[in-house]
């Protein structure tokens, strides 16, 4: 091997480390080794500008091709002391990458990709197996009992408005569900942090126990006692579900990398599956022979059994981070990431319109003179479309990319919110519910993968998810109550629909801005790659 002896190259940066710094931490070890051979074999020369360049002779290039053939076939070559590629052992290129000096990290900061040289590069992901898919199934059950139950709040909104809390306005009743949804997302700041510290199992156990406890407390609430329902269902149940929401999504990153979007799409589908079954069950229990108290207890028993199974299935794989990531550091890095900021605000705008649709669709259907039986199943139709959309989005994202998938889905779902102005018949309810369910489900399914996609350092995944979900929870907090205030007690539906659609459209514009920033960043990165001679 011949290394450059030019004075400006005395620092001897390992070429593979420079290649990873430019291309990103997820580059396959094969390509890293290609860069290492290209930059280390041969003699150095200088171009007209005095920049050091490395050029290999033809004989070395031919020898290099043979070595690559052996490398691909995992056959040891006598002159190539590299270990074969495997999913269990990190390659030597990963070890070399860890030796990158401080100048490499400074170089990555200059192109806006801080922390790309990360120790997690050496990690191997099983991308499947019994433990990995068992964890996915357990996380799906958590979402079934969490977001699936919250998505059925339209049943409670209708029941409270017409029977149980008749002295309260629709806006006041909507605050119960909004606080619930807000806490589910915002408590992720705490639970995500605890997962990074290695406390996944205690957080999940406490969250599941509290979820069952507060559901039983809700069953003791009396008619016209608004504060009892607000405290138990709004605050208590929301906090308990918030403890389990972000950890159940983040734990998938321990088992999947290449298929992470697909796995997270399956988990997100669990929320839709719960939103399909919970409304049917709650409508028949609460409005049937059991009544409110026994109906809520029955749903609590069902959720308790499923949460117990989920805790048995979910397993962590990676050890806790040796150095706990500071939220101050993550916030500082995130505040300089324009794509991440646009995504967080866009998610909040989307949640504003999303919870208007899920909270008020059944009430809108029943007040427009549709049969009670059909109104009861309007949320089930919505959630069925969402279930299909969440599964389809994970497949589509593999071809068009996660950012493009979320842009298209948010655009169409925003347009459907405006269509609620024309809701007047069973056909219109079915069309609106299915269409909005499919495309809003695509947005919900891609939120977790998008944040993971935008996070340059693996150790920041839990913290960034917590911050983004907490930001988006602001839309869930104020969306339904503000739309309820615009709706008034006279039920002027067109005003609320236009407001929700307009805010959701702003979210779509922010997602487009996020994609523009990513394209500009990718173009800048390619320019630096060419300048580096890689």
Describe the protein's architecture and organization.
There is one protein chain. With 534 residues, this protein is mainly α. It contains 22 helices and two strands. The chain has a two-stranded antiparallel sheet with strand order 1-2. A hairpin with a 5-residue loop joins strand 1 and strand 2. Helix 1 packs parallel to helix 5, helix 16 runs antiparallel to helix 20 and helix 18 runs parallel beside helix 20. The longest helix has 40 residues. It is globular, with a radius of gyration of 26 Å. The N terminus is likely disordered.
Q: Indicate the mean pLDDT.
A: 74
In which order are the strands of the major sheet placed? 1-2
Provide the helix percentage: over 70%
Alpha carbon gyration radius? 26 Å
Span from first to last CA? 18 Å
Question: Helices and strands in order, then pairings?
Answer:
Layout lengths: L14 H9 L5 H12 L2 E4 L5 E4 L2 H15 L19 H6 L4 H9 L19 H16 L1 H4 L2 H12 L5 H17 L1 H9 L3 H19 L7 H25 L9 H27 L4 H23 L13 H9 L2 H30 L4 H5 L1 H23 L1 H18 L6 H29 L6 H27 L5 H40 L2
Antiparallel strand pairs: 1-2
Question: Keywords, please?
Answer:
534 residues, mainly alpha, two-stranded antiparallel ribbon, 72% helix, disordered N terminus
Short structural description:
With 534 residues, the chain is mainly α. 72% of the residues lie in helices and 1% in strands.
């Amino acid at each position: 091997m011949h290394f450059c002896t030019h004075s400006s190259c005395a620092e001897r940066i390992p070429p593979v480390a420079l290649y990873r710094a430019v291309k990103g931490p997820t580059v396959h070890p094969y390509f890293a080794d290609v860069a290492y051979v290209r930059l280390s074999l041969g003699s150095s020369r200088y171009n007209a500008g005095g920049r050091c360049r490395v050029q290999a002779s033809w004989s070395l290039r031919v020898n290099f091709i043979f070595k690559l053939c052996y490398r691909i076939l995992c056959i040891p070559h006598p002159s190539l002391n590299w270990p074969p590629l495997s999913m269990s052992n990190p390659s030597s290129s990963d070890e070399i990458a860890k030796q990158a000096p401080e100048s490499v990290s400074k170089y990555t900061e200059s192109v806006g990709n801080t922390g790309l040289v990360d120790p997690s590069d050496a990690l191997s992901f099983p991308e499947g197996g019994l433990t990995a898919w068992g964890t996915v199934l357990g996380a799906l059950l958590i979402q079934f009992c969490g977001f699936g139950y919250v998505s059925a709040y339209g049943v409670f909104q209708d029941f409270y408005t017409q029977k149980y809390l008749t002295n309260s306005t629709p806006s006041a009743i909507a605050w119960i569900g909004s606080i619930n949804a807000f806490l589910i997302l915002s408590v992720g700041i705490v639970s995500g942090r605890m997962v990074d510290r290695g406390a996944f199992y205690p957080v999940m156990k406490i969250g599941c126990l509290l979820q069952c406890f507060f559901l039983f407390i809700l069953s003791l609430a009396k008619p016209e006692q608004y504060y009892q329902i607000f405290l138990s269902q709004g605050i208590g149940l929301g906090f308990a579900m918030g403890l389990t929401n972000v950890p159940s999504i983040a734990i998938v990153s321990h088992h999947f990398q290449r298929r992470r979007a697909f796995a997270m799409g399956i988990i997100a589908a669990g929320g839709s599956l719960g939103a399909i079954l919970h409304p049917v069950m709650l409508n028949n229990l609460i409005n049937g022979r059991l009544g409110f108290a026994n109906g809520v207890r029955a749903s609590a028993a069902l959720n308790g059994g499923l949460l117990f199974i989920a805790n048995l299935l979910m397993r962590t794989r990676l050890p806790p981070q040796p150095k706990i990531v500071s939220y101050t550091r993550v916030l500082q890095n995130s505040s300089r990431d324009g794509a991440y900021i646009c995504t967080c605000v866009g998610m909040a705008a989307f949640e504003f319109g999303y919870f208007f649709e899920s909270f008020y669709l059944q009430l809108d259907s029943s007040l427009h003179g549709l049969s009670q039986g059909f109104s009861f199943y309007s949320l089930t139709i919505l959630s069925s479309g969402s279930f299909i959309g969440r599964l389809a989005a994970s497949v589509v994202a593999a071809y068009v990319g996660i950012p493009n998938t979320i842009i298209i889905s948010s655009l169409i779902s925003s347009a459907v919110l405006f269509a609620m102005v024309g809701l007047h018949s069973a056909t219109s309810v079915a069309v609106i519910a299915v269409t909005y369910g499919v495309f809003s489900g695509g947005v919900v399914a891609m939120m977790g993968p998008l944040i993971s996609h935008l996070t340059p350092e693996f150790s920041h995944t839990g913290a960034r998810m917590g911050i983004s979900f907490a930001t988006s929870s602001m839309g869930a907090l104020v969306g339904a109550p503000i739309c309820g205030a615009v709706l008034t007690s006279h039920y002027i539906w067109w005003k609320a629909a236009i407001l929700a659609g307009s805010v959701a459209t702003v979210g779509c514009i922010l997602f487009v801005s996020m994609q523009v920033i990513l394209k500009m960043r990718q173009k800048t990165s390619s320019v630096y790659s060419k300048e580096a001679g890689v």
